[in-house]
């Protein structure tokens, strides 16, 4: 971006109230050593907070049911092994409904949540939702009936809806486009840690059976809920709202850091700071987001079914005890976490996203075919081994597709709404995934495996198509020089165009 373009560009991250204290944005000389030093300072203060939040979110949902991003299904999976369904007298249909109902409020409130996030300070909004979901989670340990669990699951979905889209968007306000995926991976790896830790924690808490006259599965919910509430109490003191608010950076360091963001996200025009309905329409009408949703479904439909909910049950079906089934999920999640981080490092270095979506899903699909072909009455070790590449193939693409979508949405309002929309529609796949692994089909699970395989193929094809379309768009934009662009469009026009600006280049 030339000096002409950058002079016309005003920070697309900061609110007007922030700009009053904005450090000067004179031309700054950038160098790699200084950039890395400042990124490390921000990393150590921002990422642990967001990661802890997502860790608790994933734990809370997976011991009873959920996502994400991405989660919950595994907790309910763990609680089910610990006796939840027997204690409450749930039929398979009732149990599946308790899993499914979470996703409807969860999906409906993700986009509105990101709009509220833009109007409130991040630490204010995040504190509200963390305290709310921690309270719901704690009370879930006291439910006495199907209707009570159903209501608790609904409100858990409502209160947790804002976390993943909010945290993902917040990362885009602190990091340049090709620094984003590794930070998303470190944040999202909390899901993999939670997958391992929730099995270990559920194993330990299940041993509290009878303490206080409560079942072991109730203590899973109560203890994890109270841990979440504690985190919410601490949040206002450890969360940073924006690069402007980072008092641990000097004035010159903030100027340096913010200028990098200005240049990286520039479309050549001045981004609006107030909400306009056209920003909502720009996101709703963007075809890129819908292709990214199909890619997202490769994780949620397949992941919610095969891993978050079914993994403890599948391992148990291999002939191991319930306690062993909990513990044997740990190495699988740890392996997935390692691959998520390593591949994200390479993705940012290569400034590429498509290969890190397409190839992992292909690996997962091949592994599913092998899993379907293996005899269900023997070779339990082989079936268990195949779960490792399935996990790697499932978890790796999610950070890539969220980063890919964020990289290709410009204008802070469109990016906030578009990321929320992607995650909203993507998480609806969890409602499908929670109902495709049927206990009556154990241990074959033909419906679950077949649906998972179909959606994986669709995700791979969507990734290929998205890359082709984006590459063609970039090629057309290269045909215009910057002077020709400014001769044809005003700064206001370019701002209104957002990522459709001829000066903006898509990440492939």
From TrEMBL:
Q: Which GO molecular function annotation, any one, does this entry have?
A: transmembrane transporter activity
Superkingdom is Eukaryota
Looking up InterPro entries in the UniProt record yields: MFS, MFS_dom, MFS_trans_sf
Q: Which residues form a coiled coil?
A: none
Q: Which PROSITE patterns match?
A: MFS
Transmembrane stretches in the record are: 42-59, 93-112, 124-144, 150-172, 184-205, 217-240, 289-310, 330-347, 354-374, 386-404, 416-437, 449-470
Question: Where does this polypeptide localize?
Answer: Membrane
Keyword terms, alphabetized: Membrane, Transmembrane, Transmembrane helix, Transport
Bias class Basic and acidic residues marks the residues at 16-26
Q: Which SUPFAM superfamilies match?
A: MFS general substrate transporter
| Pfam families documented for this protein | MFS_1
Give the bilayer topology: Multi-pass membrane protein
Name where it mostly resides. membrane
Listed under GO cellular component are: membrane
Q: Where is the Major facilitator superfamily (MFS) profile domain?
A: 46-475
Q: Where is this region: Disordered?
A: 1-26
The keyword Mitochondrion is annotated on this UniProt entry: no
Question: PANTHER family in the record, alphabetically?
Answer: NICOTINIC ACID TRANSPORTER TNA1, PUTATIVE (AFU_ORTHOLOGUE AFUA_3G03820)-RELATED (PTHR43791:SF18), PERMEASE-RELATED (PTHR43791)
> Per its record, how is this protein called by name?
Major facilitator superfamily (MFS) profile domain-containing protein
């Amino acid at each position: 971006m030339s000096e002409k373009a950058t002079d016309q560009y005003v920070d697309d991250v900061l609110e007007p109230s922030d700009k009053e204290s904005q450090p000067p944005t004179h031309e700054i000389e950038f160098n790699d050593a200084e950039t890395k030093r400042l990124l490390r300072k921000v990393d150590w203060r921002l990422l642990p907070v967001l990661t802890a939040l997502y860790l608790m979110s994933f734990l809370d949902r997976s011991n009873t049911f959920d996502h994400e991003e991405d989660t919950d299904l595994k907790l309910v999976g763990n609680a089910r092994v610990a006796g939840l369904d027997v204690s409450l007298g749930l039929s398979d249909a009732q149990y599946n409904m308790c899993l499914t109902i979470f996703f409807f409020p969860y999906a409906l409130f993700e986009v509105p949540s990101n709009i509220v996030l833009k109007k409130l300070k991040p630490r204010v909004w995040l504190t509200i939702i963390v305290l709310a979901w921690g309270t719901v989670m704690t009370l879930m340990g006291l439910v006495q009936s199907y209707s009570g669990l159903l209501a608790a699951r609904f409100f858990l979905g409502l209160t947790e809806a804002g976390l993943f889209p909010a945290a993902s968007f917040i990362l885009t306000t602190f990091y340049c486009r090709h620094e984003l995926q590794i930070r998303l991976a470190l944040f999202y790896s909390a899901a993999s840690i939670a997958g391992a830790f929730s099995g270990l924690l559920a194993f330990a808490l299940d041993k509290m059976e009878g303490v206080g006259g409560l079942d072991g599965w109730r203590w899973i919910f109560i203890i994890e809920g109270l841990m979440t509430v504690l985190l919410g109490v601490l949040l206002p003191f450890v969360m940073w709202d924006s690069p402007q608010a980072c008092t641990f950076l000097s004035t010159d360091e903030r100027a340096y850091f913010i200028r990098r963001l200005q240049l990286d996200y520039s479309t050549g025009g001045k981004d609006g700071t107030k909400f306009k309905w056209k920003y909502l329409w720009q996101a709703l009408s963007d075809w890129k987001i819908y292709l990214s949703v199909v890619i997202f479904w490769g994780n949620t439909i397949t992941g919610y079914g095969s891993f978050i909910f079914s993994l403890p049950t599948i391992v148990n079906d291999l002939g191991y005890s319930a306690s062993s089934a909990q513990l044997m999920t740990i190495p699988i999640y740890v392996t997935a976490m390692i691959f998520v981080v390593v591949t994200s490092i390479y993705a940012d270095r290569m400034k590429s996203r498509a290969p890190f979506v397409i190839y992992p899903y292909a690996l997962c699909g091949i592994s599913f075919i092998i899993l379907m072909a293996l005899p269900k009455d023997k070779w339990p070790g082989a079936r268990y081994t195949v779960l490792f590449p399935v996990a790697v193939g499932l978890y790796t693409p999610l950070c890539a597709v969220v980063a890919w979508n964020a990289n290709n949405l410009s204008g802070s309002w469109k990016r906030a709404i578009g990321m929320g929309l992607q995650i909203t529609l993507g998480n609806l796949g969890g409602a499908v995934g929670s109902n495709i692994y049927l206990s009556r089909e154990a241990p074959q699970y033909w419906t679950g495996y077949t649906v998972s395989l179909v959606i994986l193929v669709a995700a791979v094809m969507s990734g290929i198509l998205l890359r082709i379309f984006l590459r063609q768009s970039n090629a057309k934009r290269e045909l215009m020089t910057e002077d020709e662009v400014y001769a044809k469009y005003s700064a206001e026009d370019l701002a209104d165009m957002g990522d459709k600006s001829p000066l903006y280049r898509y990440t492939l």
